[in-house]
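Appendix B, Record 12. Input sequence as logged:
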Amino acid sequence: MSVFKKYYPFLFLTLLSFWFVIYQKNGLLSLGDFVFPPIPELWLYFRLFAWKDFAFLGNASYIDYVNLIHYFPIFALFKIGIPITVIQSIFISALFIIGSFAMYHLLHEVLIESIHKKIICMICAILYMFNPYVAIVKLRGYNMSLYAYVFAPLIIYFFTKYIKGRHFFKNKYLYLIGFSYLLSSPASTQPAYITWSIFLIFYFSLLLFLFHNFNKTILLKFLIVITLFFLINTFWIMSLVLNLGAINRIIDVVQDETSLEAINNVSGNNLVNTFRLLGIPGMDATWRGIPYLSYYQIYSSPIFIFVGISLFLITFFGWLFSPWTHLKGKERLWWFYFISISLLSIFIIGGVNFLIPNLKLWLFKNFPLFLLYRKPYEKGAFFFIFSLVGLLAISLKIISNMLDFHVKKRNKNITTIFFIVILFFVLLYNFPFWSKQIFTSINHPECTINSLNHYPNYLYYFGEQLEKDKKVGRLLGLPINNSPISSGVENFKWGYAGIDPIFLFTNKGYILMNPLIPFIKNFYQNINSESVNEINYVSNLSSINSLFNIKKNILRNDICWQLYHSPDPSHDKKYLDGMNTKKTSIGELDLYDVSAENFVPHVYTPQHIIYSQDSVKKLTFIISQPEFTARSAVFFESQNSFTHFKNQLNQLGISSISTDGAKIQLSRLPVTEFKKINPVKYRVIIHGATGKFPFLLNESFHDGWKTYFVKLNNIWSSNHNSKSDLNSLITKYKILDGNEEDQVNIEELKEFVDKGLVTILGNGEEQSIIHLKYENGIEKLDYIEKYKIDFVSKNFQDTIQNDNLPNGSYYETWFAGKSDDSWISKITGFNKSILQVPDDTHLMVNGYANSWIIDPEKICKNNGFCKINDDGSYDLEMVIEFWPQRLFYLGLGISGMTLLLCLIYLIYDFIYKKMVRYRV
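Logged structural output:
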């Protein structure tokens, strides 16, 4: 019994934290950004790179590295055979345990002398993790911010213990703070969440100065903690800081869009509801007349109004009573700490609805820092909950002391009854957690939308088949998407609502046309099967397939198209079936292969060049004209620096640009051989180049994409096979499973070798592909495929994909040499085997993609960077790389060393204390 008395708060908190287990059999969450992917390996892989090529046309994302902390343990647990639904329960339960334990220990540190300290801390810890803000705003919306929410009290607790210690570095709490900052980093996808714990320790340090005069030790310890925060998070901070230009552009856009109406919709609804923890904007919102929260009216019933107001009044009791009368020492500091934070948070929560709204709108419009809190309730309510729980603990201590002193003599059980009532109030007020009403369904006439779902088996099989498909190319989802959310949110007949699940099951680039995406919207109506006839639909779709490197059109017959007024998939099906291309049906998905004449590879050299002085909006018109072919490239003057643009055009033989535009056809085009190594790196061999030509990469234009020439005696040359070697290797060649349509056959491969169009076929050693399958959401081995020569594609538009080309090292292009525009002067740089192509040859093409103007004759003046063929043409090797990726590698090294040092000290501290106890 004595053991139970000692540990009952932790047992009770742990038991409550497993509340999510009651939902486990219902499937995976499809709400908010807290994704538990059905195939974790894919989503972990995406987070390793600064360039995200899996969505739309690709984009840079430097902050997304923080999600490695979330997805890596999910991946590890999944790989050892734990079902993803169980992993989801483990994660959510663990976060609730950490958050409640952290708040318990923090409040245990706050309260000094009280025989009821355990029960007080337990009740308040429950309220911190179980409240309407967590239930509605966090679990149903910005749920990745739970990481910041649960670790904030732990960080401030460790900080208070660190401040008490005598040593600056010989203190385990410093390194525990470092671990906590690292584990909370997944919340940093929205910078406001970073400020939560930083503000808490900053403000606590400030109050220590005010209450105890200036103390240099406190200042130094605060600076050490902040430095540790930056060091352990360098893996994502470095890329972000060194790309401030992109951040400034985002700030400008957000400031322009910040309006009274926009902030009003996300501000606290009113002051009274805020005190009741119900100031959540849109809590009573409906969709098509059906409420999002079926239980919201219960909070308007008399009993819940009474409970909500009672909890606030009990907390307010601590506000009114003078802390100098009932509190001692550090409790007074904490009282002021909590009450001042609560007042500040109410000011923030009010947004533009209450408490000087015009002042706050002016701050949002004129000070970029305030944009962090442009969703006032969601970002500011954390501070209100945090401070409210702290004040409640202090109030409960004061009230229990008064009951013990004045009433207990007449009734010994009165204090116990009081705590039971408060605990009952807290549990009752948060009934959605226990009554299985947090994650409910919305029943529309056309389909039911669930908060949790099991993914259909055909999606897993779809992912398995696409994993076998080696050809680099994108997928285009049909019908077009009319969602009011540009990220591709969709509703499905099987109950799912959220990001299109195709994103979750494949690492191939996937495009979903939506009218809210600035560039994509130009093509939206062109393939709207509700508004265009079959002839125009097929013609427009063929042009779009060529323009965007589409290899398959995916018809999604399982969407609940009525909810967003998207086109009926049956209309698209009729048009697509008439195109006479190969069709594969997988469950509710129909896959239509793009024909060889319309497929344009991911990297290629164009045959026709079109120049235009019109705006990019004219692109849809241009690609609909007979002059536009699959291998055309369209350059817009408005998208490129005019001086450099004109110079590059002149190099291609255009002496002037007419107002109507110009078109040329390049002759004797080179053949391109390439390998996509990963989303940020490509190796390219150009065969038979004779004159200046543009070279295209079908990823969204970004200054971070760089092209480098590689000396022929470098990594490619060391793996180069002679023709005799290649011909002997061909006997070991086989077509890999799932690639029968696109992989070259053995006769065609011999022809490629004879013409010198395939450079390398590997070393002939046996390799294997592990094919996986998924049963009931669990990864299992399907079979192992052996091969000795990797994928070599057919010749598409004079481009051959050869996956036998070497990867090279991740630092291959670091410290690359540079030359002036003439390519004649001496190469500068530590790495003289790599030569960077000048940035002024980097142009935007086709309204979105990257292009470089290549001049082999100039390059070959730098000895060793090209090979002259017998016919006078040139062969060149290039590496295309997204430059910011190296910042991640550098930052990861710094973060890794910091983490290792923290771990070494904590192990040392643990062993040392064990030895001391053993000696005693």
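The first helix runs from residue 2 to 17.
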